[in-house]
Amino acid sequence: MVARRLPDLAALEVVVTVGRLGSMGAAARELGMSQQAVSARVRSVEHELGVELFARSPAGVEATANGVVVLEWANALVERAVEFTAGVDSLVAARQATLIVAASKTVAEYLVPSWIVTLAGRTDAKLSVRPMNSTEVFDAVRADDAHLGFIEIPGPTKDLESALVAMDELLVVCAPGHPWARTGRIGADELAATPLIQREPGSGTRLTFEEALAQKGFQATDPLIELRSVTAIRASVLSSPAATVLSRLSVAEDITAGRLVHVEVDGLAMIRPLRAVWSPRITLRGPARELLEVATTRR
What we know:
The chain is of the alpha/beta class.
């Protein structure tokens, strides 16, 4: 004997509501659905079960003899489903009492603080933010060491779910005394051949910079210095005759104040997406979902 497939729980909930209220219209109003949608759900369940559940009349609906039995069973199933969902939600809430966020350095330093201030008004959950480069963010999320990650590299996120948070631009900058500051413009070939103060391999900034040059047929020379902090690179450029590539987010105020000079690069644009990533094995709930909503609505 072929096992009968269980009807969709959402459809069973509609059937149970119709039986309780004795009216398709009343059920539609309570469930926030159209009466046509309610009627279609009921007919679908009846067809799937091969049982007429309701006798229809202008006055409403009344459960048939078989319908009374089926409604009793369906109500028990719906109640257990509600218990199941509540139980899972409690497990998720316990797991996410502390929300662990892995964020690329630029996002962690220049965007996450304002997100957390906004989020604090919505949840009592504790947040643990772990700054790292984008490659390390991928690894942390894949290993379930972080509930949510934020990366700053172009290209696919492969096996992770993702959502666009913002678009960012990398700028070549130097101190006012640097030779590039006099003209404010260089060629991509000169940029590629010049040792810069740069982020470490695996960072979104470094990957975006190297990919942009590669698309123009150039390979970046080895860095002058490698530093793991956006703040450290910015401080080094402010006090040295070297140049760097950093996010507009991190240097906009310095450019406006004249502490740094933005150097245009002929024919080279370094635009990158800033994205949230999370495991496809989970559904974002609670503080994780709220943080994602804050991040995406602040674009």
